[in-house]
Amino acid sequence: MTEQAQALESEVVEETAQVQPEATETEVTEEVSNEELKDALEAADTDSEDEGDEEYTEIEYEGTVYNVPAELKEAFLRQSDYTRKTQEVAESRKQFETQKEAETRQLAETQQALQLQQQNLQGYAQIASLDAEIAKYEQIDWNELINSDPVQAQKYQWQYGQLKEQRQNFAHQISQREQQVQLHQQQQIQQMVEQGKEVLAKEIEGWSPEVAKQLTDYGIAQGFNNAEMAQVIDPRQVKILHKAHLYDQMMAKAKTPQRAEVKPAPTKKVRSGRTANKDPSKMSTEEWMKWRNEQVAKQSR
Length: 301
Prior knowledge:
Strand content: under 5%
Structural class: mainly alpha
Distance between the termini: 94 Å
Order of helices and strands: HHEEHHHHHHH
Strand order of the largest sheet: 1-2
Number of strands: 2
CATH topology of the domain at 3-106: Helix Hairpins
Radius of gyration: 45 Å
Helix content: over 70%
CATH class of the domain at 3-106: Mainly Alpha
C-alpha cells in the first residue's frame, strides 16, 4: 500500500471512529461529511491513474464510480454507511420536530379556544345579571315618576342607560370571541382535511378529487345528506367508504349477464380454377380440358 493510500485510510477511519451514536448531525455537518468523503474518493481515484502495481477496486458513491485501493474499500464503505445512517437520523429528527411543533401549536390554539369559551360563559352570566337589573327599570312608570320626582327619574334613567350600554358591550365581546372560536375550528378542520388528503393519497391508489366526488355521491346514494358527507374527514372513515364502494361495484358487475359472443360462421374458401360444379357445356376450352383431365384421372384410380 502506498503512503498516500495509508494516509487516506487513516483519515476515513478516524472520521468514522470520532462519531458518537448519540450525536445528531445538522444538515450543514452532513454536507461537509459528504464533501469530505467525495474528496477522499476523488483523491484515491486520481492516484489509480498513476499507480500501476497497486490493487484497485470500484466503489459507487452517489451515482459515481471511483477506482480506489482495495485496502480502502472497507473504510470507505463504513464511512458511507455512517453518512447514510446520519442522514436517516437527521430526517427522523426533522420529522419529529415538525410534528412536535405542530402538536404544540395545536395545543396552544386549543387552550386559547377553551379560554375564549370560558370567557363567553362568564359574559353570558353577566348579561343574565344585567338583564335582571334592566327588567326592574322597565317596570317603572316613567311618566308618573317624572311628575312626582323629576330628579329621581333623571337618576334612574341614567342608571338604566348605563346598564343597557354595559349589556351591549358584553354582547359585542361575546360575539367577537365566538367568531374567533369558529375561525379556530374552521382552521382545525381544514388542517385535518389536508392531513387526511396526504394519508389517502398514500393508502388509496389513484386518489384524486374525482374519486372523492364519487365517494360523496355514493354516500348520498346510501342515504346520507350533503351536510353529513361534509363531516366525513377522518381518513379511516373514507377508506371504509371506499372499500364499500368497490365491493358494490364488484357485486353489480358480477350480477350483470354476460352476452355470449357470437362467432361468425367460417367462410368456405374456393380454390381458384375449381370447375366441379360448373356445367361442362358452359366451360371455356381451357376449363373443359382441365375438367376432362380430372375426370380421366379419377377413372384411372
